[in-house]
Design brief:
The chain is α/β, with parallel strands linked by helices. Helices cover 36% and strands 19% of the residues. α2 packs across α3. The longest helix is centred in the middle third of the chain and has 15 residues.
Length: 170
C-alpha cells in the first residue's frame, strides 16, 4: 500500500524539526512526522510520501529546498513548489492551493507514485486532498488538527488574556 500524507504549511525535514519556531511549526509538524515514520514501519505499507511545500529562502535551512528527502527506505518527504519561493504563513498559502494541486499531480504522474490512500492534515491540505482524490480516483481521510475556537476557549479558560492569545496564535 502506497500512502500519501499532505501537510502544506510549516517546515518539514527528516531530523531537527523547528518546533516552536512560529505559529505554523507546532505539534502538528511533530505528529505528522511521527505518523509517517510509524506507517513506514508497517509491513503492508510499501511506501509513505509526505508532501509539503518547497521553500527556497535564504533565511531558512537549504533542507527545505530539497525536492525529495529520503527519511528511511520506505519514507520520503516530497517538496512541491507553489506560492513563490519564500516562506509564507499558512494564511497566505490559500490563494496558491490550486497551483500546488497542479504541480503535485504532475509530480505524482511523472514519478509513477499514485497512492492507494491519501491522508491530509489541516484545512489547506484537506482542500488539496479532496481535489487530488477526485483527480486520481483515490480515497482520502482528513485530520483537522488545530480547531481555532476550541483552542481559544481552552487558552482563555487557562487564564491567558484574549489579546495575548490572539497575538501569539493568530
Amino acid at each position: 500500500m502506497r500512502i500519501h500524507l499532505y501537510s502544506l504549511h510549516g517546515l518539514f525535514r527528516a531530523e531537527n524539526l523547528e518546533i516552536g519556531r512560529d505559529a505554523d511549526n507546532g505539534g502538528q509538524i511533530a505528529y505528522v512526522m511521527e505518523l509517517a515514520r510509524a506507517l513506514s514501519r508497517r509491513p503492508e505499507v510499501t511506501h509513505v510520501h509526505l508532501f509539503t511545500r518547497r521553500i527556497e529562502d535564504e533565511a531558512l535551512s537549504a533542507d527545505y529546498a530539497n525536492p525529495v528527502e529520503p527519511v528511511n527506505e520506505k519514507l520520503d518527504i516530497r517538496r512541491i513548489g507553489f506560492g513563490g519561493k519564500k516562506y509564507l504563513p499558512k494564511e497566505l498559502l490559500w490563494a496558491h492551493l490550486d497551483e500546488f494541486v497542479t504541480n503535485a499531480v504532475t509530480h505524482i504522474k511523472s514519478e509513477k507514485i499514485i497512492p492507494d490512500w491519501i491522508h491530509s492534515h489541516y484545512a489547506d491540505a484537506g482542500y488539496v486532498a479532496s481535489e487530488l482524490s477526485a483527480m486520481l480516483n483515490v480515497p482520502f481521510v482528513h485530520t483537522g488538527h488545530s480547531l481555532g475556537q476550541p483552542k481559544l476557549q481552552k487558552l482563555l479558560a487557562g487564564g491567558m488574556p484574549e489579546a495575548e492569545a490572539m497575538e501569539r496564535y493568530r
